[in-house]
């Protein structure tokens, strides 16, 4: 449920960001088609990185915690690593494109958040490679830091995507009425999937009676046993 709390905070921040009033673009600024393409490419790379690959990678490693087969666990673990490293690579390409092609005065929120976000993205794989073995005392602290940092990267990254879309409209005056709702639907859907897999085992257990569970007196009713004599009526049965 802690991860769900983080997701709720992220969604609230995103909705607050998207609800901000959009300023009127300055028509005096003419942007070249090449610049517009580079801005779109930059946004797509960051979405693919922190908006898709990283959340999917987190979902994969969480699913692996419930897998018993060691071979399947190993496959899921390496899939997690591949998704996360691909996300880091795409974020690096997006950052390099921004440094080379865009003005980086860091005078707006999108650039400031992006700089801090890229630092966290670089730190996350380093922390991942320093993973202690299971049973070591420092393993719990490492897991907490790795999990919190990964969750923070995803939420902050999604927020910065919204900020980037806002800045794109400010520069180009091109409508984003289709892409903004689609991105919001994706955020809500991925949050729901993470919540569902987190509680899936609990949901399945609701229809099962575990042997360890104590049967309450309310579950026992007195019924007549057919085919028996009247002297043997009234045997208790569990429904």
Automatic annotation (TrEMBL):
Membrane topology, from the record: Multi-pass membrane protein
Keyword presence, Transmembrane helix: yes
Co-factor requirement: heme b
Keyword list, A-Z: Electron transport, Heme, Iron, Membrane, Metal-binding, Signal, Transmembrane, Transmembrane helix, Transport
Membrane-traversing stretches: 45-63, 75-99, 111-130, 142-163, 178-196
Extent of Basic and acidic residues compositional bias: 229-239
Residue intervals of the Cytochrome b561 domain: 1-204
Places the protein is found: Membrane
PROSITE patterns registered for this protein in UniProt: CYTOCHROME_B561
Cross-referenced InterPro entries: CYB561D1/2, Cyt_b561/ferric_Rdtase_TM
Residue numbers spanned by region Disordered: 219-239
Signal peptide: 1-21
Name of the protein described by the UniProt record: Cytochrome b561 domain-containing protein
Organism: Platanthera guangdongensis
């Amino acid at each position: 449920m802690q991860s769900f709390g983080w997701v709720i905070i992220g969604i609230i921040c995103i909705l607050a960001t998207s609800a901000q009033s959009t300023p009127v673009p300055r028509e005096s600024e003419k942007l070249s088609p090449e610049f517009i393409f580079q801005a779109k490419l930059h946004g797509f790379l960051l979405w693919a990185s922190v908006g898709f690959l990283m959340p999917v990678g987190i979902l994969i490693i969480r699913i692996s915690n419930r897998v018993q087969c060691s071979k399947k666990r190993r496959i899921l673990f390496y899939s997690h690593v591949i998704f996360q490293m691909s996300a880091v690579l795409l974020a690096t390409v997006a950052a390099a494109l921004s440094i080379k092609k865009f003005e980086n005065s860091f005078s707006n929120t999108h650039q400031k958040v992006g700089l801090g976000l890229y630092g966290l993205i670089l730190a996350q794989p380093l922390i991942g490679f320093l993973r202690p073995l299971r049973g070591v005392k420092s393993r719990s602290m490492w897991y907490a830091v790795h999990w919190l940092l990964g969750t923070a990267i995803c939420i902050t990254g999604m927020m910065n995507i919204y900020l980037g879309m806002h800045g794109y409209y400010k520069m180009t005056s091109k409508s984003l009425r289709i892409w903004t709702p689609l991105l919001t639907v994706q955020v809500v859907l991925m949050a729901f999937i993470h919540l569902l897999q987190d509680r899936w085992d609990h949901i399945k257990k609701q229809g099962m009676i575990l042997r360890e569970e104590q049967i309450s007196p309310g579950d026992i009713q007195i019924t007549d046993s057919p085919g028996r004599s009247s002297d043997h009526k009234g045997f208790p049965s569990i429904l």
